[in-house]
Amino acid sequence: MTTWFTSDIHFGHRNIITHCSRPYTTVEEMNEALIFNWLRVVKPEDIIFILGDFSFEKHPENIFRRLSGTKVLIRGNHDHEQTIKLPWDAVHDYFEFKIDSDVICMSHFPMLSWHWMHRNSYMFHGHCHGTLEYPNSLVNSRIFDVGVDNIVKVTGEYGPISWNQARLHLRKREFTKVDHHG
Questions:
Q1: Total number of domains in the chain
Q2: Domain of 152?
């Protein structure tokens, strides 16, 4: 079983193509590419955390049923009733998930300080579409935007990132504490 993360997919959102300079000409092309990228890596036995803003589709169940894996939604600001009522395996506003000796704290919105931040934990978030730049004094190797518009900079594709890929990427960054906890 592999653990995957993604956010800010925005299925069916025509304007996101322009807003985030996604390389698609139509929303249908974008949807199919995002589905393809998901299915290429996420297997039925895997778990995938979607950290918000899943779909703008009027009928998101048509896309949802095509996607593999155990799907856990961490609600985002654009996840409305038609998305929330999909048959998710779980839905949370904030969630902590332990992998080996690490804890992944997940929220749609980024946090500069979170539970266990100095003890093998990470803050995974979405919402920012890869545009959040931390001032040098606040750079923290354990905060990570898992939205597809940021993940493309890491993996080269608009799609999910595995825990192993994320961990390798994060270990290249220097840890800087942002509060008094040591």
A1: 1
A2: 3-170
What's the CATH code of the domain at 40?
3.60.21.10
Tell the residue number behind the tokens 């393809």, with chain if given.
Answer: 36
Tell how strand 94-99 and strand 102-107 pair up.
Answer: antiparallel
CA 19 vs CA 11, 128, 152: distances in Å: 14, 12, 15
Contact (CB, 8 A) for 123 and 146 = no
Query: Does residue 101 sit within a domain?
Result: yes
**pTM across the whole model:** 0.92
Contact 146, 124 (CB under 8 A): yes
Q: Which amino acid is at 134?
A: Y
Taking only the tens place, the pLDDT of each residue in 62-104 is: 999 999 999 999 999 999 999 999 999 999 999 999 998 899 9
Cα 6-133-105 angle, rounded to 5 deg: 40
- Residue 40: both structure tokens together: 């290429």
Angle in degrees, CA 158, 55, 86, rounded to 5: 120
